[in-house]
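Re: Re: ligand-bound prediction request (bumping)

Still looking for help on this. To restate: I need the protein modeled with S-adenosylmethionine bound, output as structure tokens. Inputs repeated here so nobody has to scroll up.
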Amino acid sequence: MSENVNLPNPSKILQVGMGYWGSKTLLTAVGLELFTLLGNQQLHGNEIKKELDLHDRSLYDFLDALVALGFLERSTGIRDNAVYQNTPETSLFLDKNSETYIGGILEMSNTRLFRFWNGLEKGLKTGEPQNEVKFGDKPVFETLYATEESTREFIDAMAGIQMANFMTLAKTFDFSPYTTHCDLGGSGAHLSMTLSRHQPHLRSVSFDLPAVTPIAQSNIDKAGLSEQVTVASGDFFNDQIPRADIITMGNILHDWNLEEKKNLIAKVCKALNEKGCLIVIENVIDDERRNNAFGLLMSLNMLIETPGGFDYSAQDFDTWARECGFIHTKKIPLTGPSSALIAYKS
Ligand SMILES: C[S@@+](CC[C@H](N)C(=O)[O-])C[C@H]1O[C@@H](n2cnc3c(N)ncnc32)[C@H](O)[C@@H]1O
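Reply:
Sorry for the wait, this slipped through. Here it is.
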């Protein structure tokens, strides 16, 4: 073992400090649809250059950086002799033709979040969001849903970051005592569709603002799930929310300030049937607030994106849920930094 192993060393500082180099290289590859172009085939650098309209100068630095970062495989030699292909992960998750594509969140990181995070210092000093709302007077979701393209981009981003969690929840939680489900803020209806595929006895409503209804409905029709899943349009603060045995909220509570969070939890408690439960799916911060770095960074992302939103721990949620009428809560791990928090009404 090296004698220097316990000496302080700057590699972590440099790795995180310069992390945007690797991040922006991956985001650019996703934005260029490099992984979709590669699909299941192998291509030479020159073929990639031609298809993506790239310049000679940094072609092989770009491709080989992706190899070094573990996002491409390369064989037969280097530069003009090399052929490139997807790794098993990029083939599964970053090829747009794959059903398990999760690149929507990376596309949105590239087109929106990357530049808005430049305002982090300002956000920390003012407590104000640093996204499009800074330049307009419309609320955040109205701004995000200004065009069909931006609406779809946001919906795809949400699906990208949550699909693995939805699948894990559908396979691991015992849904057998429940027959009706409502997903509040259901976006493109991905959670409702996933639950219906794995739990065919469930009847599910995906409830969200009218702006997303046509996209959610078209997703359900395409999936052939219209018998099991319906869409309801409304505003969960001002309209009645559907009664159900289970109500889910994926990445909803973190969008709102404390008062708004508690209003929603209390409203859900009233809308649930007697033996019902609320399930929230978020990047739940550990109670000690020192381990789930992604959850803490997501909370900073809520500073960038919303007027009052923040992420929270299981202990925070337990306190709020009990105040709002639930009798106990539990946490179950999902994928990576995400967990489900369940609040039981009886
Ligand atoms: C961060 S996204 C989460 C989407 C999805 N639940 C997920 O887990 O990926 C928040 C969702 O809440 C919806 N939403 C925001 N305000 C709402 C309101 N007042 N009433 C109903 N839905 C709302 C948005 O349209 C969006 O789909």
